Amino acid sequence: MAYWIATREVAAIVRALEEYKFDCGEYPNVRDGLTALVVDNGIDGWQGPYLDKAPVDPWGRPYSYFFSKQRPEIASYGVDGQPGGTSFNADISSESLNFAMPESAYERRIRLRFTRCWLAAWLALIGSALVLKGTAQTGRAAGQGSLQFSRPSD
Fold first, then answer.
1. Structural domain range at position 134
2. In a domain, 154, yes or no
3. Which of 14, 25, 39, 105 is the most buried (most CB within 10 A)?
């Protein structure tokens, strides 16, 4: 759940940075960082606060703020707090925001089993419906009109 929250927060921070740039004409510098979205540092045009408080990722660490390709980049280093990683340790960056939840190998296996069972159940249901429809049509073709059941005699 924390990974999902972090991706949403990064997206919200990016929106706040765009509002800041619209009002002030440029993004906050790296020295002021993301606190410039909360505290007025005397920049002309500041209309904030753009966020309620200085952003902290779900693991209690401040989001990283730096420039790449003349655009600001917001990043959280995931559960482990280290750059790189896979699954829940993967970085969450505004440059490659992925709203899908990562999953472990175990979770993937369970999801695939569930999907296969669900698909098999639907195929069985559709197959049964087709068989019943075919049986009903065969009965009508033989002149019976509908399926009839007889009681066993005593």
1. 104-145
2. no
3. 14
Same domain, 21 and 92: yes
108 with 56, same domain? no
pLDDT in tens, 69-100: 678 888 888 777 777 666 666 777 787 776 55
**Exposed/middle/buried for residue 6 (C-beta within 10 Å: 0-12, 13-18, 19+):** buried
- Provide the 10 A C-beta neighbour count for residue 104: 11
In contact, 30 and 36? CB cutoff 8 Å = no
* Of residues 8, 37, 9, the one with CA closest to residue 23: 37
The number of distinct structural domains making up the chain is 2
Task: Measure the CA angle with vertex 80, ends 77 and 86; round to 5°.
Answer: 75
Give the residue among 57, 103, 99 at the shortest CA–CA distance from 81: 57
How sure is the predictor about 67, in pLDDT bands with cuts at 50, 70 and 90? Answer: confident
Residue 53 CB partners (closer than 8 Å, separation 6+)? 38
Output DSSP code: residue 101: P
